[in-house]
């Protein structure tokens, strides 16, 4: 039976489609021409301009600050949530599960708008705090899903074995569960970090003066056509770092071979 | 001590399912004991209650006189070799074995000598720094055994120890387990559904069915004198005949009329009374086949039949023979030196015979 | 585990995430609905009292083309994404683990790079002076002065581009669990490759298909950056209108009314699907 070649060809085509614009961006970041249409010679010029653009680096600092703190918070909340969802089956958990899933499918604009409404109506000034809160809110669900996936693969007879050998419940969690869960938690945190750095719409709604994150900076740069090619350079750098982070997260999510029989 | 481990009227239910139903048994110190039965018979639940992962609804579990029933697993002097081994993947072999000793905060020297001693016992000393994922199935099991034994438990529980191994490895581990048991002397309790495993490993076996213990005996006694049809079929194969006791003879022999079989059979069994209905069991290998009718006598059980089916097994051959309404299974060992052994083809008329002592009563009705 | 009243341990573990989402997700959502019924005050905030003028404003027929455009674009995006993602998931689930990992990585990486940058990339790509236009003109596929940008086509293209991974990933997850020997059985019984695909594989990944469809559709409904950046003035979607109301018009209540309507449009298909799945499960169990 001959298998049709169509799916394979289509897959390659789609992947090419997904990468094409990015490739053009990267190429153009070295293109001396202002418009991507022609190649005017290789140059580092746009990168030099980027280096000199202080406001970009300030935004990067703000973005990183938020991303790190939001990731840590969502790692904590997400791991607790995943454990509760995995360990217990009850009406509470069904509601909990639904609540965790909703942010995953809610359009950004609704999340952004609703949070803005909350802050406006409670008189909280938009700024770093509000952005942090918003980021934790949408990252939580992602971390939960990642950690939940690891928990479902986790062999709980290991906990029985630890107790059989003399460990109390707490010791078993400390010495067996947490070490084995850590890669999953980190992978979730890394995902949260990436999502936080990348977020535009929600941040747009809940940011204030003086808290221009990197995506917001890029958006304003896009509006002033003078800086367009610099965005190419910035984009290339961002793509490269995303690539690295993604590879790291992927390695951390590799299923642990437990070396145990049967299952 | 013959009452070293005592299970005293223990029951456990899960919802409406009675997993363990009023089970009582006692195990001697140093004994190799098996809980044997099909899946769902309650043996695993009983094991978990011994380890401390389940609490009995009623009854007690005593070890060396001490009541363990309410103790959590980490406080019991009992260790388990889990069916899937449950080796900690983030620790190497050495650390895995040392785990229990670390939990009880033994001094460092003691831990070191204990682990090294165990590694030697299971012959894994060169693999001490490896991770479980780098070991073969048989090696992982030995680590699991070492990890449990190093804590010098008073009882070692082994859950389906040979289930995950392939045939050759299984045969090898059987010998190893017996050797380890001999060397260490700890009370071993096996849980298994494989009767061959139980018979090779145990001093005594408790056969379980639907939450109850059917019979506790040494392997040979279980095989030769099963007390119920369940035990008779679970351990080995059996031929069953239903009949009525028509004549009580001296020396404890009884003449039984079997429905559907022309001539009556004689079996030896003291507990039968006149006119009692009974169920009789004969093992296939106890049945001899001859082409001619064997010389008749008072104590010879012989009846004719026709060979229906033949299954060749290598060391022996199984015959399915039709006698009246009965289908009888006979098993013949093949050997060049057993003169007079026949190999009948399908459709051949043969005579089956067995010695009265080989007929066992497994069930009595109307009286017993 | 038999369900009893939740233990205090369960509450302790559940409370942090539950409380956080309750305060920062549920309450804001409720606030939106509430704000929709309030009048706007002059400073761009929310006034006192109640009014249904915002809801009434939604009945203005001028909304119709925008709603229609949003729904149509979202539906088109969903259909095209699914049509592309299905064969991809099919292929990815069947190749060896190494190839599969690589393909997965390749699909996910562009997705993880900055959202704006991806749109920007298309903006430069489709620019009249950009490489693609030049290429197509040289190939005589389009006239000299063709504008690939600032039209509905560009919006659709970029929406598909950004939503594709949302379609591929759940479908791939479902395809991984699919028993491919079923296809062999179908072929053995005489079905050709297309028929075994459409009649055995597609129903087999039904669950993933529905997740993907819901995710893509719902995400598309709320888009506003894409139409703003690569669409023309007449290509507005509901999302752009909400943003406009919030930032340009500074009319929170009207924006809330719109947002509430959008929320409804998003939640309804989700609950329908969830109920249908639950119902299907009950049927299968009985």
Detailed description of the structure:
The complex is a heterotrimer of chains A (263), B (368) and C (286). The longest helix of chain A has 34 residues, at 54-87. Chain A is mostly helical. Chain A is built from eleven helices and no strands. Chain A has helices at residues 6-29, 45-52, 54-87, 91-105, 108-122, 128-153, 157-164, 169-198, 201-206, 214-223, 228-252. Chain B has helices at 43-51, 93-103, 108-121, 137-149, 167-184, 195-201, 219-224, 229-234, and strands at 5-14, 17-27, 32-36, 58-63, 66-67, 78-81, 155-159, 187-192, 204-209, 212-217, 239-248, 253-258, 265-268, 277-282, 288-290, 301-312, 316-323, 326-333, 349-354, 360-365. In chain B, the strands form four sheets. Chain B has a six-stranded mixed sheet with strand order 6-7-8-3-9-10, with helices on both faces. By secondary structure, chain B is of the alpha+beta class. In chain B, helix 2 packs across helix 3, helix 2 (93-103) packs parallel to helix 4 (137-149) and helix 3 (108-121) packs across helix 4. The two termini of chain B are 34 Å apart. The model of chain C has no long low-confidence stretch (mean pLDDT 82). In chain C, helix 8 (181-188) runs antiparallel to helix 9. The relative contact order of chain C is 0.12. Chain C has 286 residues and is an all-alpha fold. Classes of the chains: A mainly alpha (263), B alpha+beta (368), C mainly alpha (286). Chains in contact: A-B, A-C. At the A-C interface, helix 1, helix 3, helix 4, helix 5 and helix 6 of A face helix 1, helix 3, helix 4, helix 5 and helix 6 of C.
